[in-house]
Design goal:
Elements lengths: L6 H15 L9 H5 L6 H11 L4 H14 L3 H5 L3 H8 L6 H16 L6 H5 L6 H12 L8 H10 L10 H11 L5 H14 L18 H4 L17 E10 L6 E4 L10 E2 L20 E2 L4 E4 L4 E10 L10 E2 L10 H13 L11
Parallel strand pairs: 1-6
Antiparallel strand pairs: 2-3, 2-7, 4-6, 5-6
Helix pairs in contact: 1-12, 3-4, 3-9, 9-12, 10-11, 10-12
Length: 359
């Protein structure tokens, strides 16, 4: 059994595996590309890391392709209209990321390039410790330690760390730093992520295929699959609310732009009430509201949400207290929750988004 702390042995073993088995990802400059002298594009690295926060690789691929087709450089993204970027982001969730994405692109465009140091990257809007380390390491080959969920899991198993998450996160970060080499740190960071995503998986790790199994104390002790330990999570509370779908005779729906801060900030959506245990009705205008059967259910990071949907057809000239009627409405521009409200309403009334008969 070799000591996993000996990065001089661990890193080369992992990198040999990565050179042969690296995942092909649209934002990645792979080992063969690097060997051919291709330099990673900081814009693509940064964009992918922002998109991948709390989102899966499978979900991000399509968004990344559309963003880079439409805005191939950070300057192009910086020049885009906020509403266009927010609409393209719809469905990725955590919309503060999109607002910070726009702000960061404009700062970088103004300064002329991405900073290439950890401190410089940390100073950018929306760039936290993890993203700064990832961009510094992957785009600029700085010897920074990149720690995501995959890296935490690999590290916990290599060192047989049995203290539970999340309190043990700082310890795992320090141990991951021990493993990080000075040579090819960007490739090493991606190799650790690939290892966790494909072999050292949360359930049923494929230890017999692991290129660094000889360093793994968790495997030696027969506890690898149990790590990292986690404290039991408290059950998520359920909040409730009302959503209001109003349409003019021409089919234009009443939508509002949510406040810039908070959940779904800056995104279009249906007017609604507060979200709480006992929400208060808050119709956006006087109308004959009809409550639709069933509920729209959605889960955020910290709570479950159940919305009662009410709909009404209103005349031309209706005066809403919030929002505006929007001809040419595109439901794909809505965030996931609001798209669920749309789909729920459509299912309840097949003619909902077209002119009413006789209108």
């Amino acid at each position: 059994m070799r000591d996993g702390s000996e990065s001089t042995e661990f890193a080369p073993a992992l990198l040999r595996w990565y050179d042969a088995a690296a995942r092909v990802l649209p934002w990645r400059t792979g080992p063969a590309d690097r060997a051919a002298g291709v330099v990673p594009d900081p814009y693509r690295v940064w964009l992918s890391e922002i998109m991948l926060q709390q989102t899966t690789v499978a979900s991000v691929k399509g968004y990344f392709h559309r963003f880079t087709e439409r805005w191939p450089t950070v300057d192009a993204l910086a020049a885009a209209e906020d509403a266009e970027v927010m609409a393209e982001w719809a469905g990725l969730g955590y919309y503060a990321r999109a607002r910070n994405l726009i702000a960061c692109a404009r700062v970088v465009a103004q300064r002329g390039s991405f900073p290439d140091t950890l401190d410089g990257l940390r100073a950018l809007p929306g760039v936290g410790a993890y993203t700064a380390a990832a961009v510094a390491s992957i785009a600029f080959d700085r010897a920074e330690t990149v720690v995501d969920g995959n890296v935490e899991r690999v590290t916990a198993r290599v060192f047989a760390v049995t203290e539970p998450m999340p309190k043990v996160k700082p310890k795992l970060a320090k141990l991951a730093e021990v493993l990080t080499p000075q040579t090819r740190p960007g490739d090493f960071a991606q190799a650790m992520m690939d290892l966790g995503a494909t072999i050292c998986t949360p359930r049923n790790p494929r230890c017999v295929e692991c290129p660094v199994a000889g360093f793994c104390k968790g495997l030696e002790q027969g506890i690898a699959s149990e790590l990292p330990k986690k404290l039991a999570k408290a059950p998520k509370p359920t909040r409730r609310g009302f959503a209001y779908v109003a349409l003019r005779p021409d089919g234009a729906p009443l939508l509002e732009t949510r406040p810039p801060k908070g959940l779904l900030g800056g995104m279009p959506g249906w007017p609604g009430s507060d979200w709480s245990e006992v929400p208060q009705p808050a119709p956006p205008l006087a109308a004959d509201w009809i409550e639709l059967p069933g509920l729209v259910k959605h889960t955020f990071t910290h709570f479950h949400l159940e919305l009662t949907v009410l709909m009404a057809h209103v005349p031309d000239g209706a005066n809403p207290e919030v929002g505006d009627f929007r001809p040419g409405f595109d439901p794909d521009a809505l965030p996931t929750l609001m798209r669920k409200v749309h789909d729920h309403a459509v299912a309840a009334s097949s003619d909902l988004f077209g002119p009413r008969p006789g209108a």
